[in-house]
User: Which sequence fits this backbone?
């Protein structure tokens, strides 16, 4: 069965410019953008290290982080929303939740 999930090689995202932003009550409290060209090691080199350690016949996800760090005065609070967008790949948004009560559903399984 063919996967409907897009597969991206290091070559197809090599020129990506990841963007991160955070919102509080609808207002942007932080935003920044970087480029994969600013990684300390080239993507091909990182991938070569990954495959030295293990065999991944179905592929693998290599997470390098974004290299974007908000200043100290930006601390996330319950209800803040963090957005990450990567060219050619897509976007992800998560709402910050603080406290154990937000995880109770995991114990009910």
Assistant:
């Amino acid at each position: 069965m063919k996967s409907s999930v897009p597969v991206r090689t290091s070559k197809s995202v090599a020129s990506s410019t990841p963007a991160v932003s955070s919102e509080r009550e609808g207002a942007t409290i932080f935003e920044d953008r970087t480029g994969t060209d600013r990684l300390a090691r080239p993507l091909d080199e990182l991938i070569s290290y990954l495959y030295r350690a293990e065999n991944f016949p179905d592929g693998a996800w290599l997470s390098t982080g974004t290299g974007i760090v908000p200043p100290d005065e930006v601390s996330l609070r319950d209800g803040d929303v963090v957005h990450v967008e990567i060219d050619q790949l897509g976007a992800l948004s998560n709402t910050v939740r603080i406290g154990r009560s937000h995880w109770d559903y995991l114990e009910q399984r």
